[in-house]
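U., I forgot to send this yesterday:
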Amino acid sequence: MLWPLTRRRHVTNAHLAQRVALIRQQNPESERWLMLVEAAFAEADDSQAWADAVLNVANERPIRAPLLHQSQIAVRRRVLHRWLREVLELAAVDHLGRSLSRTLEPVALLEAAVSQDDDNMEALAGAVGVERPALSVVGQIAALPLLQTCGRALAAQVPSSWCEGYCPVCGAWPTLAEFRGLERKRWLRCGRCATGWEVPWLHCPFCGETEHTNLGYLAPEDGETTRKVEICDSCKGYVKAEPTVKPLAAWEIVLDDLATVPLEVAALDRGYHKPERPGFGLDARVVGT
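Result:
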């Protein structure tokens, strides 16, 4: 179980700080998650060390594989140890944050998180005596600065013809869909690396359904007309969607997802769900230097 501590990372992004404060006021039950998200984006923005990570992308990959598949990422152990210790202290996993930072192998955790490898995450959790879901949350937060760095570094290499429902960089399912600008083009966005990719309007990202009779949406009952939930009756998948003037910032993707939990609940109550497994089984290696 995750328990927040009172210490918070100072956030230099004023827009991020204002948005976090608003969500904190509206959803006080989200406090522990907000503290982790706030720290992760502060780390991603402030630490040049993550920008110094060395990314070696495979020259040859399966045609439908994300860019990080079969890649090797070198990160500084000192930076990773410091950051993981901060995440563990903020999360206070079973109140063992400090001891876990000494027994948990940071590189192995980061690799399992980047690859969304539940089996390795389970093994790591068992080795240190914590529950896998709690360690998975810690791992995803710990991986966010590195994944953001990879997303920026590989943005120009994302093929314009990419038509898969999972992220072309890290293989995750989309966190939300954007309808951009006056043309209302539909873009899927990854909450891990912030990558965006354009897809057709009538296309389920999870099963590929294109028949309009099997695709629809749920609208909020409170009269809000901007946000909705796209649903697929073929696979019972769903993704939240909203109109945007321009691409959302990386932190906006995560915070918009957090701020629209009622839409998530509405979808779940009607039998829709997110896939349990990642969009693509990423094979990425992380090494410490």
